[in-house]
Amino acid sequence: MATATNRTPSAATNNVRNANSKKTEDWKQNLHRPAPDKRIRTSDVTNTKGNDFEDYCLKRDLLIGIFEKGFEKPSPIQEESIPVAVSGKDIIARAKNGTGKTGAYLIPLLQLTDPDKNVVQSIVLVPTRELALQTSQICKELGKHMQINVMVTTGGTNLRDDIMRLNDPVHVMVATPGRMFDLARRNIADLNNCKLLVLDEADKLLSMDSNEYLEGLIRLLPDRRQILMYSATFPVSVCSFKDRHLHNAFEINLMDDLTLKGITQYYAHVHERQKVHCLNTLFAKRVELLAKKITQLGYSCFYIHAQMSQQDRNRVFHDFRRGECRNLVCTDLFTRGIDIQAVNVVINFDFPISSETYLHRIGRSGRFGHLGLAINLVTPNDRRSLYQIEEELATTIKAIPQNVDARLYVAEFQMSDQ
Question: What is the DSSP letter of 35?
Fold first, then answer.
């Protein structure tokens, strides 16, 4: 005969529960968090639903990596993206540069990766080598406690080295389209178990230069796969791409306006003869000449452009990220997705013709809701482009004042009282 048991918890049971609760809190206490960032942040990243990363039932080792990376709370694009991506849905997401898009796809990617399966499970495609290096590094940092192997591969590097690295287990590949397609079509990279494809800076990947490789790569993936697309801007071709390759995609659009709220934009009228001028040389040469002129003025300066060797580009990229030099002269090569928190000021020496290029350039400052400054050197011939960009982006670019507020570009003056 069954007898009813007393359901009142015993003292021993309560002690166990209290111990478990204490353990849950202990892992947070033992985190090696970076110092909190006390700079002022704009609503681009603070206008959230109030969620925490713990709300998404993420693996403990992933949460540790997230907090030790310095992520405090999910940004709006992360709130919208993480739970949907973890559920397995396709996503088309449009959000401003510098608002956390990389974390929005890397966190669910790592959550969905099984380190016990020694196969390629995810691919992240990006348009440039520098962005590939940066993205792979962030992926490694977020997943550093998860035993997930991340490999970066780009054009301009030794194919034989990639072959050797793929002899060892690789779970996640971060790549440029041409090199990834080359490895896949040669059966060097086995994609039979690759169920997730991420397109970062998707507008650039859908351009004529990369689209052929992208289409070829998708044909080599399993039929049952998930595709996540992220960008600040999307071309018309995204509609036909979505119809061909995505299934009931979840659409995210956080572009209530196009420019980051924390960036103050100025223009200064100049004559072309007042700028370092070299009409009959390649634009890359113009970069070197400008860097040389800046150095002659007594300022330390790095430069980077597409015609440099990959080894030299990597060296400049890493040295600038480490803060070994405060000034960098670059072509549009550097405007896609690169996130260097110390960059507060962008100077457009050559004013861009298109609003898309302008948006990506100035987006190197004001990252993740911080304040930034964009200064445009505008010749009389540039005035039409200036007015057109203001109209297309629904923004205002003001004449530069005699004295620029130091809070816009000096980090020490950007601290909040909290």
Answer: P
Instruction: Please report whether residue 50 resides in a domain.
Output: yes
Let me know whether 199 and 73 are in one domain: yes
Q: How far apart are the first and last CA of the chain?
A: 64
Residue 212 belongs to a domain: yes
Name the residue range of residue 201's domain.
27-253
Indicate the number of domains in the chain.
2
CATH assignment at residue 304: 3.40.50.300
Q: DSSP state, 33?
A: P
Q: How many CB atoms lie within 10 A of CB 300?
A: 10
376 and 410 share one domain: yes
Helices marked H in 322-376: 355-362
Indicate if 235 and 384 belong to the same structural domain: no
Segments in 30-128 forming alpha helices (H): 43-46, 60-68, 76-86, 101-112
pLDDT in tens, 333-377: 554 544 445 456 777 878 888 877 887 787 766 554 567 778 788
Between 87 and 329, whose confidence is greater? 87
User: Rounded to 5 degrees, what angle do the CA atoms 19, 59, 20 make?
Assistant: 5
Q: How far, in whole angstroms, is CA 384 from its chain's centroid?
A: 31
d(CA 20, CA 26): 10
Residue 302 is classified by DSSP as E
pLDDT digits (tens, 9 = 90+) for 10-40: 555 455 445 445 555 677 777 877 777 666 6
Domain shared by 244 and 281, yes or no: no
What are the residues whose beta carbons fall under 8 Å from the beta carbon of 121, sequence distance 6 or more? 112, 113, 114, 171, 172, 193, 194, 195, 196
